[in-house]
Amino acid sequence: MALPTTDLLIGKIVAIVENEALSISSVRDEIDEIKQELVSMKSFLQDADGKKENSEGEETWVASVRDLAYDVEDIIDEFMYHIYEKQTGGLFPRWLHKIIHIPRSLWYKRQIANKLQKTTKMIKAIPERNQRYAIGGVEGTTSSIDVDKWVQNQAESSLFIKEDELVGIEGNKQTIMGWLMDEEQHQTIVSVVGMGGSGKTTLVAKTFTNESVKRHFDCYAWITVSRTYAIEDLFRCLIKEFHQSRKEKVPAPAKLKDMSYRELLEKLVNYLESKRYLVVLDDVWDVKLWTEINISLPDRRLGSRILLTTRKEDIAHYSFGVVSHVHLIKPLDNNEAWELFSKKAFSTYHNRFCTPELEPLASKLVEKCKGLPLAIVALGGLMSSKKSTTEWRDVYNSLNWHLTNNPLLDNVKSILLLSYNDLPFRLKQCFLYCSLFPEDYLIRRKRLFRLWISEGLVQHVQGVTPQAATENYLMELIVRSMLQVVRRNETGRPKAFKMHDLMRELALSMSTREKFFVVYDGRESVMEEIGARRLSIQSTEGTEIKSWIGMSKLRTLLVFVTGIIPLSFSNALPSGFKLLRVLDVEDMPLDKLPNDLVYLFNLRYLNLKGTAIRELPKSIGYLHNLHFLDIRKTKIEALPKGFSKLLNLRHLMMYYNNKDYNDFKIVSGTRATSNISKLKKLQVLSRVQSEGNIIRLLGNMTQLTRIGITNLTERDEMDLCDSIQKMKLLTNLSLMVKDEEEFLRADNALFSPPPHLRKLCFIGKLEKVPHWFSSLDSLTSMHLHWPRLEEDLLSHIEGLPFLGSLTLVNAYVGSELRFSRGFVKLSNLQLFKFPSLSKITVEKGVMPNLQFLTLNSCMELKRLPHGLEHLTNLQTLSLEFLSSQLIQSIREGGVDRPKVQHILEINHFFDSSGGRSCESLSPRALYRGGNKLALYM
């Protein structure tokens, strides 16, 4: 019973009534009573979660609880508005009272009390009604045990799949077999990891049933592990399987059943004492399994092997205390996916080929599967009975419905749902929230973190910051293969990720049913009553956002520009938006904010990034609850005077211009008010323009963890260094001078740089390398832009222990760069615009972990770096605006061709008549298929 949305609502309401104890004193009894009811509901729902699939009666009961929780949220929000209006002296316009029905009379609090009493009675009536109609005890409900048994049967059926039904599995099977039958005598664990349906079990099954593998071991056993297992039952299964593998008489079931834990363990250990064994543990959900089962699998240095499959990366990479290997499942490439789909979808067609008129739709359906074998096979089977273009188009347009309602796709739904159902209670709504973003959307980590926190999805843990908690949430979703990492930073931390299309379709279906949110994609002619608290608009229609029934319940609005003609706001927000907590209109072509924006008293998060807005409202200070504001890439040049009233603001991201790396001026900072230092809760301030005494005042903001300052001059040095030294919590620092001839001075007066600084960006001319660069022991990323140094920079930073990313733009006026030692953690090196650079030397052993190298606008460079062949971990070499002589040197037959044989990807970017173009100079075909897998589990 997955009820994360109800938990979220109840948790938020309880937090509100606890945090506003003084404000609600006049209705204390009513608040306390409903709070106890809500806490009891929450506890009961958490206990029920995961025990059963919902019956129709239970669905009705859940909907009743959810809707009443929504009602309580509305009452509390109205009450908080009334209190807020009183505190601000009635600054809001009269018409707003009519819109959200908030009277101004003295009997208002009594009215709120009556509403709460009425709602409490309705809550108490739910169990009485359930008992009257016997809801919760309906026969025929599918239990979790039945689901686990079905999954086990599906997994073990993989042992009997014919080889001709598989696609591209042979290479991966040989890899696994090599680990199983190598010369290592110690016990070894081989882990195969990937999302549900990626082909883990099929690969392992085809390896396990291979005759060469069977002959290599004295005995073998296959165990499918359920999420709720009993270790004694696993011991019994092992005993049975081992005996069967040797064609020995299996102990009687009754005898095994009567054995105690100790007796079963003793029997297993004695049986395996002198045998080389192979054990498959399929679908492992918890590393606790290994701690319980390994005692029964002795290591007698006979070459025994444990082969396990799991959806969770943390299990695969767990230190088992023995030799281990990890095989990461990757999606099928396009050709393999099409081949597998064709085997199923066109098995009854003439010559088993797709007809030309169906090919475009078939390609789109295969793309939807994103290389997931289970989905490809199931969808291919569904489409095998569809013959007309109309039938194919109907399935494509309603794939969400088919995924949750069509019996032919039940296996896909069930396998994917297992991952969702295994999530901790607090993580389910975070996962559902990711599907608010459009299909294939690249979700940025920081943006998602801010949204999760603003929505109240992050559970408060004493001693843990909200940012740290969200980091844990994200990593847990990633290691469970629920999200796919697309980009990582220099330390390997995820920067951006996507949802698999089918996981997203499943999440959309669940979110709509539970009224967690609704996605509007323009397919319907009008937006009908939605009833949900969140709305994600992803439409290419050029219609205006107007009011509709149910909009008054809305707390979150996200708008995504998905086409040429996006949706647009009128000058006034529709009345239903007045209780919004989150408003995200990133990249929407807005040039003016609605006047009503300042009356969104509930607003926590406002994202205007990439819009054409020129100014913020002068009365923006009314948004007292605003925590996050993003105005980057807008045309806002200055903050209004009332900005300092935003006392709860935590993150302020801003700049109004950005250019290419080959220009000096990357961004233009935003002018701040002189009293911005009043914002004592502000943690992130990026980027503010230096003006007046702003630099000195920033020294009072010692709570800052990230700051960016532009428009600096030489005379700012003393105030700048003094302020930076006070910011002991600072992790990110970005400094930029007024113009390219201005010196950036932050050296002589800075005696102790922030001790936890991880990212440093300097934009401007440097007389010399600051002396404190060499002491930045926590630094992971350095970006030096336009310093035009005459001295050797590399010797000052080569010893930084955690430096993972180094970007140098017009940083050195000399003719040679020599990497002679150090840079042990450097994985990403970018060199832009070195006008005099003619030689780069890399000594052997330097930059041993470099994976990405970019050379851009270094026209005097005629040859690749000397010693490039020593960079054995280099994966990608990007070349842009370089001499034709250098490019020719690495083409087939070129003098530097032997240096790049080990590099997987070499891209040459250049300008052509058609615009910016790219050609691949890779010396060998890039094997993107990686772990080619197919079919089922």
Helix content: 25-40%
Note the quaternary state here.
single chain
How far is the first residue's CA from the last residue's CA?
A: 24 Å
Task: Provide the gyration radius in Å.
Answer: 31 Å
Which segments are poorly predicted (pLDDT under 50) over 5 or more consecutive residues? Answer: 101-106, 137-143, 925-937
* CATH topology-level name of the domain at 145-328: Rossmann fold
Residue share in β-strands: 15-25%
Number of extended strands: 28
Q: Give the overall pLDDT as a whole number.
A: 83
Number of helices: 28
Largest sheet: 18 strands, mixed
The first-level CATH class name of the domain at 145-328: Alpha Beta
Structural class by helix and strand composition: alpha/beta
**CATH H-level name of the domain at 145-328... which superfamily?**
P-loop containing nucleotide triphosphate hydrolases
CATH architectural grouping of the domain at 145-328:
3-Layer(aba) Sandwich
| Morphology | globular
Summarize the structure.
By secondary structure, the chain is of the alpha/beta class. Among the domains are: 4-141, no CATH class; 145-328, 3-Layer(aba) Sandwich (Rossmann fold), CATH 3.40.50.300; 334-390 and 400-414, no CATH class; 423-513, Winged helix-like DNA-binding domain superfamily/Winged helix DNA-binding domain (Arc Repressor Mutant, subunit A, Orthogonal Bundle), CATH 1.10.10; 814-928.
